[in-house]
Write a structure and sequence with these properties.
Helices cover 66% and strands 0% of the residues. By secondary structure, it is mainly alpha-helical.
């Protein structure tokens, strides 16, 4: 029974001694205070996780304090420390992914612009087609109907609804046939 209690006590001690190696513990705080670090500096070191992020160590802060550097100077150095290598790697990976998405979207946009230009060119040629113009001039297609055709084609090219033309969006224009 005594061995079980001793074993449990050792395990309990081991578990509580597993505080993160880079976190400030009570001993580190006392060492910093004895070296002359102010409460604000100690709190900022702990809050910014500067020890955990390896921006500074307790021994380095103690050495700086013993050399006469102020708390403000040490804080500025910690703040200027920037990101650690793993943090920079994550940021770089995110930046690369964002650049790839931007490049893909720019390529898609370029293709859409090309498609639009082809559609505009095609519609322009269709609207100005000499045969269509001839039909309008000869009265086989009324100019109002021609205007409706142009309006329909423009709406269709923009992907807009064309339901106002009836029959599921199909345009119904009567063309007079020439009688032989």
């Amino acid at each position: 029974m005594a061995r079980s209690i001793l074993f449990i006590a050792l395990i309990w001690q081991f578990i509580f001694s597993l505080t993160p190696a880079f976190a400030l513990n009570a001993e580190d705080i006392i060492r910093l205070k004895n070296a002359g670090a102010g409460n604000d500096l100690i709190l900022k070191i702990d809050q910014s996780k500067a020890i955990y992020r390896a921006l500074v160590s307790v021994d380095e802060v103690i050495e700086l304090k013993s050399s006469g550097f102020s708390d403000e100077f040490i804080l500025k150095k910690i703040e200027q420390g920037g990101a650690t290598a793993p943090e920079q790697d994550r940021e770089d990976a995110a930046d690369r992914a964002l650049k790839r998405r931007i490049t893909r979207n720019e390529m898609k946009l370029g293709l859409l612009k090309k498609q639009l230009n082809v559609s505009v060119d095609y519609l322009s040629r269709l609207i100005a087609n000499p045969d269509v113009v001839k039909l309008v001039k000869s009265g086989k297609i009324a100019s109002e109907d021609y205007g409706e055709i142009v309006k329909y084609l423009k709406q269709y090219a923009r992907g807009e609804e064309t339901n106002e033309y009836g029959d599921g969006g199909n345009i119904n224009i009567g063309i007079k046939k020439k009688q032989d």
